[in-house]
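Re: [ENG-882] Designed sequences occasionally contain unexpected residues at chain ends

Forwarding the minimal case from QA. Structure tokens:
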């Protein structure tokens, strides 16, 4: 009997993607004065950086914000980490779909100022606090490292990222 264990690609797993976005919005959704600042574009950009810690490290070092983040071999040793697909930086369609799911589950809220901004709801915060695993801790750690970038506009962020993206 040949039983195959399914191989799950994290980027194709709904639970993984919405969890990552929930944590990202929870960490970066408000500035230090508690004002919302995450647009759809910024969520997509920060999600790209979470998916590509190698690039995040380069951006943080170039900005002089921190000395860098500690990267493990899986974050630096693959072709995908060295040559990420820049199209994912502008993947607003799928991010919009995941955000709609998070809103429908009452995990995030939409605030309208000049545009739609996303913040974590109380229910979302409770769930984030209950999440624990090595991978979840890493997502939280990387999200916290991006706090120094959260006040930049999406245009500024893309300009900072592009020099380090060698992919297509």
């Amino acid at each position: 009997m040949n039983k195959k264990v399914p191989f799950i690609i994290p980027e194709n797993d709904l639970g993984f993607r919405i969890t990552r976005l929930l944590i990202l919005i929870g960490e970066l959704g408000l500035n230090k004065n508690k004002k919302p600042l995450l647009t759809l574009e910024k969520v997509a950009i920060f999600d790209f950086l979470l998916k590509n810690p190698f690039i995040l490290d380069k951006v943080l070092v170039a900005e002089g914000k921190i000395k860098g983040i500690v990267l493990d071999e899986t974050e630096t040793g693959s072709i995908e980490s060295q040559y990420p697909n820049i199209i994912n930086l502008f993947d607003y369609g799928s991010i919009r779909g995941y955000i709609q799911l998070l809103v429908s589950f009452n995990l995030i809220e939409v605030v309208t100022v000049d545009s739609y901004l996303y913040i974590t709801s109380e229910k979302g915060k409770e769930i984030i606090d209950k999440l624990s695993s090595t991978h979840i801790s890493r997502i939280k750690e990387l999200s916290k490292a991006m706090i120094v970038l959260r006040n930049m506009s999406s245009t500024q962020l893309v300009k900072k990222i592009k020099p380090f993206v060698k992919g297509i």
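QA comment: On inspection the terminal residues look reasonable. The radius of gyration is 16 Å. Proposing we downgrade this to a documentation issue.
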